Amino acid sequence: MKKIGVILLAAVTALCCTACSSGKSGSAGESSVSNAAKKSGGLEVKAADGVDQDYIDLLKTYFEAIDHDNFADYQKTVYPPYQESYGKYLESDGSSLEQSFHEDLCTRFDEDGYDGWTLTELQIEYCPPEKEDLDDFFKAYSGAGIFDDAFVENCKKDAVEMHDILFTLYALYDGDEEAVPIVTNGEIFVLKNADGAYLFG
Predict the structure, then answer these.
(1) What pTM did the predictor assign?
(2) Residue 2 resides in a domain
(3) What is the pLDDT of residues 75-95, one digit of tens each?
(4) How far apart are CA 112 and CA 200, in angstroms?
(5) 8 within some domain
(6) Residue 161 domain-assigned?
(7) Could you give the angle at which helices 149-158 and 80-91 cross, rounded to 10 degrees?
(8) Dist CA 157 CA 50 (whole Å)
(9) pLDDT, tens digit, for every residue of 131-171?
């Protein structure tokens, strides 16, 4: 039974609809990951040629943190100024970054009738430059009240580079034989600064 999960992984990522929604996957289509692969552990990452290893490692850590409900590892992946701004935004609504992580992000893929799931495969590639519009991401976050124009300007000054990454994510649901795509051509915003690679999510 397939689980159709057209879900974006940050609270406001649903607002971040850029022109880069029709990218071709950087690796082959259907996943053949089975229960045997699930038992071996670990998320398999298939990256298109040219994707920076720092971003591969970053996204693997991020999705494995979600899979294992590990807030400390999740924090390592998220751009620190964004953590601060988004945390304040959540606190104004009576929540917190940690609460949102455990109660929202880590339950995004839950399905009725299944006790759980394991993320098995992540396919990633850069959004084609002609379709990449990072300003749309900033506009969406600013429009949602997560941060202001000053934050955007500081982020652009701080970043050595920024990218929109397309991803397809597979999960194996408990009791099923085959992993299924739960996000297809999702988008996630990554950047590098002097301290390392981070994402907004």
Answers:
(1) 0.81
(2) no
(3) 999 999 999 999 999 999 899
(4) 29
(5) no
(6) yes
(7) 160
(8) 25
(9) 888 888 899 888 888 999 999 999 999 999 999 999 999 99
